[in-house]
UniProtKB/TrEMBL annotation:
GO terms for cellular component: plasma membrane. SMART domains: cNMP (SM00100). The chain crosses the membrane at residues 6-29, 186-212, 224-245, 252-270, 276-298, 310-333, 339-357. GO terms for molecular function: transmembrane transporter activity. This is Cyclic nucleotide-binding domain-containing protein. Its main location: membrane. It is found in: Cell inner membrane. InterPro entries: cNMP-bd_CS, cNMP-bd_dom, cNMP-bd_dom_sf, MFS, MFS_trans_sf, RmlC-like_jellyroll. The lineage of its organism: Bacteria, Bacillati, Actinomycetota, Actinomycetes, Micrococcales.
Length: 507
């Protein structure tokens, strides 16, 4: 409709205007998901959307005021803006390893792609069978069903700030911006994500113009092109489950970014419908890789306490870039021609992805090192129940600590201010001068003094050269005691150790 009334420029302007509300609201509302339990935010959002859409369905059925229907649609849209940041921030807390998180993002990408492909076609069927009110009613039921599913979610959530401080939304949103600005890895992923979103926005214009003016397939051809992208996204999500590993996320991300643009350049160079349908499916594959690798990388690099705000900023960047992309594409078509616009836009992502390859490779190395530390900590009994963000938080605070054979790590009666985990080597644990036990790689010690707030209850001596990782008490204690499962496990472990060292409370 926009193309018929105003050409490519009208399509681009509409695309930009559609994105403005999400761009403004996402970073402003996302602090709400960093307070309290994130699944409750999802329940509220889904319930509000369901009730608003159900009310719209009822009004349409009785020919109610159109203005009220529009207002309800706005309410639903505002609520939806908070869903993706909250959902993206919640997923890591349901996982225990980076591989689990990547796998969860594969499943989410597959479901998103399938819903994007099936949803419009289901709406068309419902419109044909009944009317708009039925589309609204089914959408409302889906939202309320989503809320019901999340209500039953059980997991070990960390303590979070009170959710009732509405007056602090702006400062908290600014903290999310600072978290992104201070992290070079996040800035790189955000920049490439913005390029991909710009290309996505351009595609909304170029698919219309290319189908009508370049390929000669008319308006029906627009649907065929976008269906090809959707099919590619579903197939790409299935392939991502076999291809993506946590050690090469940056490289897969670069490939996905490149696949977002290259097919457009090919269509611009070879404007033939079968070629267009085939190569545009690769955009869907690229989208699957970008979603899996990009969202997993962001979750691994950002601190859990600001994670929803980081994703909120990302949603804002994406929304602005999509809107800008649609406008840029329309201006290119008006200034040059459709083929030139396709080639210019299509080269943006491949060029940027190629330039970023070395930095993404370093990002892979950093994530790999983080995985090694997570694996080391996971071997400690009291830390095993912790969700991935908590263990990663501990891993980021580890520092290397070396002790030569025969030297003492700490003595019985010392003030305890650090916890240790053995990377290599062995130690003797002595209570009142007697060897109580010997510890080796992957085992931790020093927790009794920290968790019970007592002096050191044993002396620890290196039997051979030691490579330890140390964690300060201020970092260790709040995490261990901030999760019910790890608190119980730590309490049981400490009691067992104290019983072994009887009659004193040695470690």
């Amino acid at each position: 409709m926009a193309y018929r009334s105003g050409g490519a420029a009208a399509v681009g302007l509409v695309g930009l205007l559609r994105m403005v509300p999400s761009a403004v609201l996402a970073p402003l509302l996302s602090p709400l998901a960093d307070r309290g339990r994130r699944e409750r935010v999802l329940v509220v959002v889904s319930t509000v959307r369901g009730l608003a859409t159900a009310a719209a369905a009822a009004l349409v059925a009785v020919d109610g005021p159109v203005a009220v229907v529009y207002a309800l649609a706005v309410v639903s849209t505002i609520a939806a803006t908070l869903f993706r940041p909250a959902h993206s921030a919640l997923l890591p807390s349901l996982c225990h390893t980076g591989h689990e998180l990547a796998s969860a993002n594969v499943v989410r990408g597959l479901l998103d792609s399938a819903a994007t492909l099936i949803g419009p076609r289901l709406a068309a069927v419902l419109l044909g069978l009944s009317g708009v009110e039925m589309v609204f009613a089914v959408s409302a039921a889906a939202s309320l069903w989503s809320a019901a599913l999340v209500v039953g979610l059980r997991y070990d959530a960390p303590p979070r700030p009170d959710a009732g401080r509405a007056s602090r939304l702006l400062p908290e949103a600014a903290e999310g911006l600072r978290a992104v600005a201070s992290n070079g890895g996040l800035l790189l992923v955000f920049g490439l994500g913005a390029a991909q979103a710009l290309t996505r926005g351009a595609l909304t214009v170029l698919s219309v113009v290319a189908a009508i003016e370049l390929l000669g397939t008319g308006e029906s051809g627009v649907g065929a092109l976008m269906t090809s992208v959707g099919v590619g996204a579903v197939l790409g999500s299935l392939a991502a489950s076999l291809l993506v590993s946590t050690t090469h996320l940056g490289r897969w991300f670069a490939l996905g970014i490149g696949l977002w643009g290259l097919p457009l350049a090919i269509v611009g160079s070879v404007p033939v419908e079968p070629v267009a349908l085939g190569v545009l499916a690769l955009i869907g594959v690229g989208n699957a890789l970008v979603d899996v690798a990009g969202f997993t990388l962001m979750a691994r690099m950002a601190r859990d306490e600001v994670l929803a705000r980081v994703f909120g900023v990302f949603e804002s960047v994406v929304a602005l870039s999509v809107g800008l992309g649609s406008l840029v594409a329309s201006l290119l078509v008006e200034r040059f021609d459709t083929s030139t616009a396709l080639i210019v836009v299509g080269l943006v992502c491949p060029v940027l992805a190629t330039l970023a390859l070395s930095r993404l490779g370093r990002l892979d190395l950093a994530v790999g090192a983080l995985d090694e530390d997570v694996t080391l900590l996971r071997g400690v009994s009291m830390l095993a129940p912790l969700p991935l963000p908590a263990v990663e938080g501990l891993a980021r605070g580890l520092r290397p600590f070396e002790v030569a054979a025969g030297e003492t790590v700490f003595r019985q009666g010392d003030t305890g201010d650090e916890w240790f985990v053995i990377e290599s080597g062995t130690v003797d644990v002595l209570g009142d001068g007697q060897v109580v036990t010997t510890l080796g790689p992957g085992e931790g010690f020093g927790e009794i003094a920290l968790l019970r707030d007592t002096p050191r209850t044993a002396t620890v001596v290196a039997r051979e050269d030691l490579h330890l990782r140390a964690l300060c008490a201020d970092h260790f204690v709040p995490v261990v005691l901030g999760h019910p499962h790890s608190t119980r496990r730590a309490g049981a472990d400490v009691d067992e150790l104290l019983d072994r060292f009887h009659p004193h409370e040695e470690e």
